[in-house]
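Pasting two entries for a bug report.
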Amino acid sequence: MSLSAVADLLTCPNCHRPLSIMDRTVRCPTGHSFDLARQGYVNLLTGRQPANADSPEMITARDRFLGADHYRALADAIADRAAAAVDGLPAEQGRPRLAETGAGTGYYLATVLDRITDATGIATDISVPACRRAARAHARIGAVVADTWAGLPIADGHIDLLMVIFAPRNPPEFARLLAPGGRLIVVTPGPDHLRQLREPLGLLGIEADKQDRLQATMSAHLEPVQRDRLRYRLRLADDELIALVTMGPNAHHTDERIAERVRALQPPVEVDVDVWISEFAQR
């Protein structure tokens, strides 16, 4: 979609004044302006794209893997939780306003918007290729290139539901964004997530106390509501394994021999999906 449906939520990254769309430009009253890309996203980074931003190759791999619905059970579980959270909002708050930070291709946000048919959503990511893809993931998504750690260009207290799925977490920033009664959904890997691939493919490890630390850091700013664990198993061929490994942070830590290592596993391989879905509320 055009960015117009969510433009009233966006703020200038330089002066924090409200933004509006004029022709192909996004402007603030102070005079700062940002070009609206022909693909429909806007870049509100104030500096260069960070070096750790997802590359075009990573986004293509993620689009291929998620597009095959290997994580559909996870997406549906998130949508169930999101719909329940939004159902609890006061009717006078009007159309639900959603956001996903580190949204990548927009796959999860699009699934949630399919479920919550009157909502609009902002997808933010530091990767330009990711936002280019997210901008066309759903008719009610507005995509913004922005850095979670630098302060998101979204107005205080206007987001009814915020999602952070396998992405960086900035608790005080999330608390700033949430409207009264707003909810945050955080998805993190469990101890057995992709365990069959970690050692043979040299994947990143998962800290044993990850969930405890998440609860502690989030609880300083938001009220814990509930958390659930989702576990299931995939059976993946070699091209699917390569896409899985190269679509996320592991891509920064694997070498060009990844295809050779995958073939050595003699696919198809059974792989565990193990994730925690945690929900927090604005205080």
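Entry 2 (this is the one that rendered wrong in the viewer):
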Amino acid sequence: MLGLLAAARHRLGMEVSWLDRRTQDHGLVTDLVDAQGSLPGLVPGFADCSPGTTTGDAMHHRRPFVVATADRCAWPDVRELASRNGAGAYAGAPVVLCNGSVYGMLGCASRSPMPVPRERDAKFLALLAGVLADCLWPSPATAQTRDQIWLRVHLLIDAGGPDIVYQPVYDVVDGSVAVVEALSRFPAGSGGPERWFFDAETVGLGRELETAAVRNALRVLPDLPAPAVLSVNASPPVIASRGLNELFAAVPAGHLAVEVTEHARIDDYASVRVIRDELRGQGIQIALDDFGAGYCGLQRMLELRPDYVKIDRALISKIDVDPAYEVLARAVVTLSKEIGASVIAEGIETAAQLDRVSRVGIRYAQGFHLARPSRRLALASR
């Protein structure tokens, strides 16, 4: 959903976008925010949606609105937003669920007024609100499920979760540990990491859960001897939000790599490249996770120019039995060399796969055949 918020913000030229949920007392509570940098003041947080207000009328009539100059708007609540929060332009569209009920509002704001209000902007915002509605729950029963998910994720974070295990990445030439990847683990029987992070995202806690995982992973750094590097996973929206910068600021240069996960699309490569360069300026390396899966393809590789490219296990699983997979692996190695990146093969489960990976020129490997994830650091050479 953060990708949809980002699309709304970029299309309208706004600095921040958010998703509000309607409460039973004619209020709106902000669930999810996407911003250009840190702009908390522009987000209402809580807003009145009673009849006669901008949002109240928009939800009642099921219509979007665009206010080009907020401080001159006829609606008093918009002028108050301009005065209190410094909004220059403001736009919104009701999020109507499939059963006809109104979930809340998709909102955008900017500190600068818009040059000219455009009808197509309102229509585009309404279109995105419809897509958002498809991601949300339409009934009270499922809304209750949503609350249960929110509470489950919130309690896990408050209890110090998630747990972290570590899996080494080996140099196949000399057998040494080059990288140690930190992986999140959750209570037995409650679902795997993909389920937890997906659920957290749907209830607006995705960034909080990712941040908690990275914070917990970094605790092992004092025990990690050079030249091994700790690798943590982060999604493009969390990286772009700079929400991890405070944690990274305390990490010594040359000890950390950030793996950009493949499960979320990137709508603004320019912004992500700026943050990539900032991280590199701190001595933090960039890894492209699961190359060949999900959204992670050639464009992401060429746009981000990572230090490491991790080939997805699905492309490694047949490298020793299907010549086409070997040809593809060689092509990734060649392209990676051209952009100055090293290649890591994920999911090595047999000696035959490890042998073939080495033959095609892949320097680093990770998988159960080499070492399983463990709560303790495994730093011995093979």
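Dev reply: Rendering is fixed now. As a check, the viewer should reflect this: The CA atoms of residues 4 and 128 lie 7 Å apart.
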